[in-house]
Design a protein that fits this description.
It contains 15 helices and ten strands. Helix 10 crosses helix 11. The chain has two domains: about 325 residues, Divalent-metal-dependent TIM barrel enzymes (TIM Barrel), CATH 3.20.20.150; about 55 residues. By secondary structure, the chain is of the alpha/beta class. Helix 10 links the parallel strand 9 and strand 10. The longest helix has 27 residues.
Length: about 375
């Protein structure tokens, strides 16, 4: 019997070159794994069953490569993707590693740095379009401060808006058809990053010249670092029509950015996330922005990548079981809306008068138990496989 948790192309699982290529370096220790070339990373991802491979510009092409070197590297990478049947759903740009971005990229005080950052991003968009990507992620890892003495934060927001507006125009001019996905994070590598949460970016998008082209790329770890509920952020983005992409990993609250294997730290939170994505029929890439433990060799990297996808599929099955469980559904029905007033979705004099004249029994409304304890226990039993 085939394993029901084997990834298939329709699951749209993808990994970044920087995920399986992560060498285990951290602030206290050097790399523990040898370099994994982009073409070897493609082969590894195909072996474990992924559908897509994503990249920053410099994950593939070194920042100082000549045009001839760039073209050769891209051609080799395209050939590897074709041989192994992988696609490139998303591309992004590295505006955080090189020292030139030490005080930000789009928000830097230096106008030449800001211009260089836009130029570098346009060239990364050229690369993404050449590889077939339709989503372009922007993560402002250096767009922040250690001290607010350096600039007024409203000036930084204005500079960020100018940059995103310019890049939208470039995509339209080149007919790339990109959908831009903005990725929030509260801190690290800066002490504070300007757009700290997905909600902050949702507010920012409404101020852009082309808000229809711009959405968000929420990441599990980035919201959970601040102790926030990631599912709520994703749901808000979805309800606004702005969930263009998603980064899946795991994280313990209040820690540095850990990028753990998906579901490995908070399986219950991961369950609600998978259930939400499947219930609303999210049809975009399910991208794993995580990396293997520093203890692992490349076999461990394979185990990590397989584990991310397998956990997602297990939780998908558990969500289907939860939705089909008669007792769970009965409890949800009992906790439902009760006696209905006329619909209040649209204001009218009739609904106004009905609402104002209705006599609410507060004591009755507040005395009814909602059975959420039982509902949560049944959820745990579904997750633990005893139901």
């Amino acid at each position: 019997m085939p394993d029901p948790f084997t990834p298939r192309p329709e699951h749209q699982f993808s990994f970044g070159l920087w995920t399986v290529g992560n060498r285990g370096r951290d602030p206290f220790g050097d790399a523990v794994r040898p370099v994994l070339s982009p073409t070897d990373a493609v082969a590894l991802l195909a072996e474990v069953g992924a559908r897509g491979v994503n990249l920053h510009d410099n994950d593939l092409v070194p920042i100082d490569a000549s045009p001839a070197q760039r073209d050769r590297i891209v051609q080799e990478f395209q050939g590897a993707c074709q041989r192994h049947g992988l696609v490139v759903p998303m591309a992004t740009v590295n505006l955080f590693y090189d020292p030139v971005f030490r005080d930000g990229a789009f928000t830097s005080n230096d106008a030449q740095v800001r211009a260089y950052a836009i130029q570098k991003t346009m060239r990364a968009m050229d690369l993404g379009a050449e590889l077939g990507a339709k989503i372009f992620v922007l993560w402002g890892g250096r767009e922040g401060t250690e001290t607010d003495a350096c600039r007024r934060p409203d000036e930084a927001v204005k500079r960020l808006r100018e940059a995103v507006n310019y890049l939208c125009e470039y995509s339209l001019d080149r007919k790339y058809g990109f959908r831009f996905a903005l990725e929030a994070k509260p801190n690290e590598p800066r002490g504070d990053i300007y757009m700290a949460t997905t909600g902050a970016y949702l507010g920012f998008i409404a101020t852009l010249d082309h808000p229809d082209l711009v959405g968000v790329n929420p990441e599990v770890a980035h919201e959970q670092m601040a102790g926030l509920n990631f599912v709520h952020a994703v749901a808000q983005a979805w309800e606004a029509g702005k969930l263009f992409h998603i980064d899946l990993n795991d994280q313990l609250p209040g820690r540095y950015d850990q990028d753990f294997r998906f579901g490995s730290a908070n399986p219950k939170a991961a369950f609600w996330l998978v259930k939400f994505l499947e219930d609303v029929k999210y049809d975009g890439p399910r991208h794993f922005d995580a990396h293997a433990y520093r203890t692992e060799d490349h076999d461990g990297v394979r185990a990590f990548a397989r584990g991310c996808m397998r956990t997602y599929l297990i939780l998908k099955q558990r969500a289907e079981q939860w939705n089909a469980d008669a007792e769970i559904q009965a409890l949800l029905q009992e906790a439902g809306p009760g006696a209905r007033l006329p619909p209040l979705t649209a204001y009218s004099r009739a609904t106004r008068d009905t609402l104002l004249s209705h006599d609410f029994d507060r004591a009755a409304l507040s005395s009814r138990g909602l059975a959420y304890e039982r509902l949560d226990q049944l959820t745990m039993e579904v997750l633990l496989g005893v139901r």
